[in-house]
Amino acid sequence: MATSLPFRDINVHASASHYAFSSPSSPNSPTLVVDRPSGDLRLNDGKLLGSKRVSSIAGILGIISLRLDKYIIVITKATPVGRLRGHMIYKIAATEFLPLRERPLHDLDEDTYLHIVKDLLKNAPLYFSYSYDITNSLQRQSDSNPVLPLWKRADDRFFWNRFVQSDLIDYRTGNSGRLGYRGEQPGIDPFILPVMYGMMEIRNTSVKGNPLTFVLITRRSRHRGGTRYFSRGIDERGNVSNYNETEQIVIINDAASKGPVSYAGDGGMSEAKTGPLAGREAQALSYVQTRGSVPVYWAEINTLKYTPRLQIRGVESAVQAAKRHFDEQIRIYGDNFLVNLVNQKGREQRVKDAYKQMHDYLVPAPAQKTYSDEKTAEKFNVAEPQRDRGEYSRLHYIYFDFHNETKGLRWHRAQLLLQQLEGPLIEHGYFRGVDMPGDSMGRMEVRSRQTCVVRTNCMDCLDRTNVVQSMLGRFMLTRMLIDLGVLREGERVDEDHAFEHLFRNVWADNADVVSKSYSGTGALKTDFTRTGERTKRGMLMDATNSTTRYLRNNFYDGPRQDAFDVFLGTYLPARNHLGGWVFVDKRPLLIQSVPYILAASVFLVFVGSFTRRDAMAAVWPLRVLMILSFIIAMASLYFIFTHGTFYVNWPKLNTPPYAHEGYQEALNNVLQTPVIGPLLSRHERGKSDARLGFMEEGKKRIE
To answer: What percent of the chain has pLDDT over 70?
Structure first.
């Protein structure tokens, strides 16, 4: 049975009554018709007459409903990344929104929805393939059914456009419920294109003269997607923030896997070199790691201070959610080695302790019995394993105080963590598959499997996590190459300097992509990842990125979080709009005006300081104005940072409950001040209607 793969070329035809999508390379395939303005879908045998061809597209990203209209999001430009086992991988370079209404309706909210979603897609690293399932690791692909359509094989966690493909998938499965949508419609399968959010680099290189293809893939989960300070911890369904799966792949004897030219030692898309491995069977080796936020209910609350306020709910309240999370992790990956890099002192200690408490809830300590020595009065305790610890005994908690161990630029001490993990890493191994030349489906013969995963986290799951994951990746790569015969026992892959340069830069690129997706800037400590040592230039870059993170996380991440919520379906504009403008600033006008008063005061001080005055003119009026402006500027600045909750750019759609709480608390404090309070006392727009349903009885909060 032939596999139904997405169309590689689609022509879009538009008329006042519909959009029609057809593939010129598959003239016998049905045409997908989207009626305007209803958005109803249907398949038409042959081409529709009377419609005008608009353009050719690379694929349909999905259909999204905003407040007033529906839009078909199409991929208008895609750039090739490289070939993986003969399959071309593409990165989305441009998209376009096709409105269903012939005359688009505009208002403030609709235009804002469009702007934030377009901005998200413009900056998002989105990848796809017409014939290869990039959402699944090689090991999971070996267990999947290659006959199924590509979208049915996709891993739901990493099928990033799954929500906006809902209309097409519902029509395909016959679950739409609309009149005329009866039964399954397999003819629509080629129009459903799974897209992955993350990072992918494919590099042709060699180690000690042996040609190979080195691939690094990071897949970001679509569940609990969001930005650094607006998405933390775990939700009730067991999804954690900033969850990413990173897969490191080595392919040998496969001329069909090629990538673009990048670094020294990289052969690019040129013909594969011949070497000691030439003529042998094509093999693919894969090692998978994960990262994700600490699985408890916790948040960091922005108040314009450099260090946000930490809030952690009682660990007991998150036990069921954590069980759902780790049930899935154990089912997919087997044993989980939970590497916690959070500081054991200072403000991070509470997060570290909460994670350890959660692990102890799930994995009770072995029972202890007290025995007495027969010859002496001495007593001693013996830990006896419990038989009823269940699946959670496959969770292995490992704590490593990264900052304390590596302080003073002693980065080599990170190897202490590797020493703890070396035994389990070797025992649980990696995936190894061999191509079967006679198999038309491209399946592999499995030689070995990876039976565990290392799940690493720090506070953000970014900078410290990146350093540790690249270290583990290098160790496992060395083991792979030793098993392949490329290296001898005792040799290390970093002894090949050209390849080490490529390896470090690919992992540093991965760190930057993951960090930009979550925090808005490149990763910190990438100078160590790229060069193996900390440099003054790298420290300066870290300071710049830290400052940029502060500005973005406080003043720009609100709209970014709103865009994630709209695109991923956690907020539905068409259903949640209850009248009134969602994006209108509802703060009291006096609160809104303070930054403008500050800017005007600073401007007057600046002008007064540099304006040339006539020798005969009186000086004191200008000095009085400058002094008054300076006092007003300082008072405005003090007010802004004292009541920072007013000036954080919070998400407008799924506003966190703690933001409502903080806003109401700040407003109550201002109302009690003798100067501004009377001016706001009659202002009703400042009141919050927050529904604090999360504060039900029995859920304690630790401030």
So the answer is: 87
